[in-house]
Amino acid sequence: MSADDQQFWDLLSSVPNHVRQYSEGVADFLDKTVDKAADNVRHTLATASWVPDYARPKPSAPPSVPVVPMSTWETMTTWVSRHKVMTTVFVCVTGYVTYRAVRHSRLVRKSRRARRAKNGGRLEVVVIAGSPSLPLTKSLALDLERRGFLVYIVCNTIDDEVMVQNMSRPDIRGFSIDITDPPSAGASIDRFAAFLQTPHAAVPRAKPNYLTLTSIILIPSLHYQTSPIATIPPSNFADLFKTHLLQPILTIQAFLPLLTSRLAPPPQPQTGDGEGEKTVTEVPPTSTPKVLVFTPSIISSINPPFHAPEATVCSALSAFTEVLTAELRPLQIPVTHLQLGTFDFTGFVPARGPHNPGFLPPSAETQQWPEAARLAYARNYESQSSSAISAGRIRGLRGSSLRDLHTAVFDVLDGSDKSDVVRVGLGAGLYGFVGRWAPRGLVAWMMGIRKVDELSTWERPNSRSSIGSEDEEEPREYIAVGRGSEIGANVWKD
């Protein structure tokens, strides 16, 4: 068979395939056309009003759409696009928690020790201006001494010096100063400055070193009276402002000349010993002392009723600290305000027993008030005293560990935390937020304060009876109500 014949037979063999292909295409076209026409007729008859219901055809079912499963990424993106607000909140909370966790882990691993000399002697001095009887002063002094600081506690009386000596720590010493006598206080500061400018040896026959004043920590008295303003005598207010407000201010004022002067040690010549070796006194690098002011912040943040002494004094100390910060900032002397919450002072204060003598419940205290004051304030005072958040305490919680306070203080001393205000302790941040944003009425309602509908009637005193009773007893316009014996109930008690 020739090549032309083979080509002809190949062409003939391909004809059936083309016929089948074209016929299938025509058949598919006819099927689609007929189906479309049938659907149109069915839709027209189904929507026509003249066709009876029994003869009306049912509309054709829509074509099925193939379901394609979505991937995990597509599901997540779809959910995020539908819940944008929730996604934003989740991202912010997760980022903040992650940041706090990473920061906390780094702070936990950080080694917090004071700088020492090459021979192990202490170089940094911290002055604590606070009563040695305060648990906060004791715990902070012991912790700073353990970390390598030389701690001086300001003592105003002989009893304070005895308390410091009873700590039995050679590196915790008393600093006697009478802030009520400016010349005497100035002489004490001069002696302390001369002490810092004199080299000291840690042990006999060791190389002497100069000491550096690292910080002055002010811890005001933390014991306050809780009572209605009407029942607090003016003498109590005067004593309160003198011991809780004026004394801390005068203490800082006495130390200001020492803070604003650079205590640079004088240059020391090289001295030779008996063997001909030369010894050079180690001079520490100059550093600026820091000022730390402690104040309880819970009561002053929300200003609840029956806490006028603490709210007034703490607010005044906060304002004084802000002014002090503004005055010392140009001198590059950092001032940090530590706003404290509640701490667990177990081991520093005696436990309150069930039969503590001298302790009176609020109902018994109100019985000592005049009839008018008792009728006006007694119910709310008892409710507020027994509420779960009274006196800055949260019922059922012991308070933050003192380690949190010690860590925060050291971070301020070494410059890790340069904030002007540091909140530490249980409730410090929460009560600060509540005091800024929560309505005062809501806070008072949560503490049990309710409206008083019944008040006493004003009675004009009888002139004859008052004159006749002058010799028998003195008139009592005010009654001092104090709960000084309740030591364990509030950690701020002395």
From TrEMBL:
This is DUF1776-domain-containing protein. It comes from the Eukaryota. It holds the Pfam family DUF1776. PANTHER family: 3BETA-HYDROXYSTEROID DEHYDROGENASE DHS-16, SHORT-CHAIN DEHYDROGENASE/REDUCTASE FAMILY 9C. Residues 263-286, 458-479 are annotated as: Disordered. Signal peptide: none annotated. InterPro entries: DUF1776_fun, NAD(P)-bd_dom_sf. Residues 459-468 have a biased composition (Polar residues).
